[in-house]
Amino acid sequence: MGSTAATSTSDTSDEPRSQEASGSPAEEHAERRAFRAGLAVAGAALAACLALGLFGILGSDGGGAGTTEHRTRTAPVTYEVTGTGTADITYQSGSEAGTATVVSAATLPWRTTVQVPVGRDPIVSIVLGGQGGQARCALAIRGDHVQSATASGEFGRATCTGRLPEPS
């Protein structure tokens, strides 16, 4: 009886592989081109995302060309309260929402200048404490005196208001 030679299933020979297993050189070239094209598209998409992100970060200060920014026109308003002692002061602040700012037990004399949005009428109100006294509020728009009023006595009150017109 003769011995039978074992056959190896691994391909260690120098023979080229069959075309079924690896594809033709033309197919391999097409696959490489498709892979490279996919990488190029992914790279372009990534670059576009980074560019948009940088534009959003760097362009958010309103200084970039082509950006639109909502700017509210404002005017300087000076509120002043003279007298002695303390008073609670409420005044129209510089917010677009028209919120008031309250200063409790402000030591007099007191003064502040804020930018008030055009269309919001500036107002300052004072309320004296239980100790009474006398205080005077004054309001100036764009440096021009508009109104003044005096509060006196226990819990005395005074209000100064004005109209904030468009600049001429």
Task: Offer a few descriptive terms.
single chain; 168 residues; alpha+beta; four-stranded antiparallel β-sheet; 2 helices; 8 strands; 36% strand; disordered N terminus
Main sheet?
A: 4 strands, antiparallel
* Low-pLDDT windows of residues: 2-13, 60-64
Overall 3D geometry?
Answer: rod-shaped
Question: Cα-atom Rg, whole angstroms?
Answer: 40 Å
Proportion of residues in helical segments: 10-25%
Average pLDDT level: 78
Number of strands: 8
Helical segment count:
2
SSE order: HHEEEEEEEE
Classify the beta-strand content into a percent band. 35-45%
Q: Oligomeric form of this entry?
A: single chain
Structural class: alpha+beta
Provide an overview of this structure.
By secondary structure, the protein is of the alpha+beta class. Helices cover 23% and strands 36% of the residues. The strands form two sheets. A four-stranded antiparallel beta sheet has the order 4-1-6-7, with no helix packed on it. It has a four-stranded antiparallel beta sheet with strand order 3-2-5-8, with no helix packed on it. Strand 2 and strand 3 form a beta hairpin. The longest helix is centred in the N-terminal third of the chain and has 34 residues. The radius of gyration is 40 Å and the shape is rod-shaped. The termini are far apart. 14% of the residues are buried. The N terminus is likely disordered.
